[in-house]
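Forwarding the complex inputs:
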Amino acid sequence: MAVRERNNIYLPVKAEVVEKRHLSADVSLFTVRPDVPFDYRPGQFFMVSLWGAGEVPISVASLRKEGAKRSQQGGDLIEFCIRKAGKVTSLIHDVEKGGFLWIRGPYGRSFPLEYATGREMLVVGGGIGLAPLRPVIQWALRERNSIKKVSLLYGARTPDDLIFRDDLKRWAESGVNVVLTVDRATDGWDGNLGVVTTLWHKSEIDFREAVSFICGPEVMIRSAINDLFFFGMPEDRIITTLEAHMKCGVGKCGHCYAGRLYICTDGPVFSFREIKEHNLL
Amino acid sequence: MRSEWVLPKGHLSYWLRQLRNRASLIAPLRVDGDIVFKSLENIHEVSLDNPALLPSPKEFLLPQQEGMFWTEGERIRPLLNKERRFIFGVRSCDVSALGLLDRFFLEGYGDPFYRERRRNTIFLSIVCNNPDPTCFCIGLGTGPYLEKGFDIQLTDLGDRYFVQAGNRQSQRLVRQWSFLFTTPRKVDYEDQYEVFLSSKARFQKRISLESVREYILAGKVRDSFWESVSERCFECGGCVYECPLCTCFTVTDRSYSFGTERVRLWDTCLFKGFTRMAGGVLPNEKRVLRTKRWYYHKLVHYPDVLGSFGCVGCGRCTVTCPGRIDMATIAIKLRDLQDNGR
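Prediction (whole assembly, two chains):
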């Protein structure tokens, strides 16, 4: 692609779907190989599109590995975890292995992972909210020597809605304290019941010293950040990522505008302090 | 390089005709009683005796709908509009708005579609010597004349125009036909100054958005006030479409048998569906949140981020709004509340 054209911020790059995995009834993980390499960090997102369908903001669900298996040509593999939620995402779900998505990015602020160095890390996820947190845990496992402890509280509606079950197992084996819960049990589930915010006592975390990364439905984020603050976690170390309707990803279209900020360029990652200051939730 | 001249009125149409040979010339025209900015066929059609309230020339930089990309298979073609334009007869307030639009679209991630249009457009603005009753640019410093930020500014001195060029590109437009222009004399400066003064004296609305902003920031405006404002909102989006500073757009793909076009269209934060998220969640479902957002954006956040109000006092929303909750009316209401010590 000509250099001049790449200066067009709205121009997406072709990315081949090299793998598609169903994670639950309505969630799939797309592994894509874009035509050009992208440098991205956990918490950032891409605008993913299909011509004729439209564009949607999707956060990266993979950690960009140092010295990763480099593809023959083009860039490293990127993973996007996409829930069938509307028109565009339904059409994206029709794309199979060997098909193409179009991506541009990465956009937004990433998680301040360096806050976790020398501390305990608490990861709180709900539903598909685990997707942007997955690279955070992957990073923590890579940097395990500098992180005291990793604890994951993860909840979904039913056991079948828990995504990344392979990863959950692997993380538990690697020493992550994985605590799962569901709103509604089905046959074969003998684990926790209820929302994630009923599981604080199982996190084995010293809240005052730890850093937390949170993502999930808005109600969950709201109660999680309030609880953690109440338990004495400093507001700068309660980190969440917000979702918003977006059309451009670069602070122009106005859709994600909230309290002086654009979720796309000023976020999507915010600390509890910023959320309070700008009245974001 | 000199940047001030005098143009006898008899020379204007000749000059415009010369300009039209270089690029398309767009000017206010009367069409069935309405005044619209249109490409000019006949120079004598130019309507110079306009009320101050013309349509905003925003549509030439951010059109109501604009193709972004055209794709056929895997070939993608950006649809950059490189048409060269002169837009004649623009008002000072709209030129002030352009300065802010430029910063919004070109700072940070530069918008290529806006950049291409902006680069190819020169605005010839006219000092307002007869502001409308709805105009309040005078309180914002965005009119009725400009000290800077214009391409070419003309002041009507009766039998001649005082012409000022604000940049090199515009200076060239005069120098190429320098035989049409004369050097300003003392009397021309004096007459221009007089036009400025008499225009300033004609404003009926004196509004200080600064004091409104302070009042809001002091926490004096209760949510019940915004509730009462939003109850009068018809959600027509008229204020947003008319506003020279409202820039929100949506993007949609249109498929044809022979290809797909990605298009952007004006959108409005006052519509309920504006923030609809995956799964149908509506963060701004309550109308009061949307009304408040519009006012906060223009009065509080715009100054925080860009250093100027998101309003240039053009008064278009005053004319358009069927619920009479336009910027000027709200500002006056808040001032009255403030004066009554509430």
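The mean pLDDT of chain B is 90.
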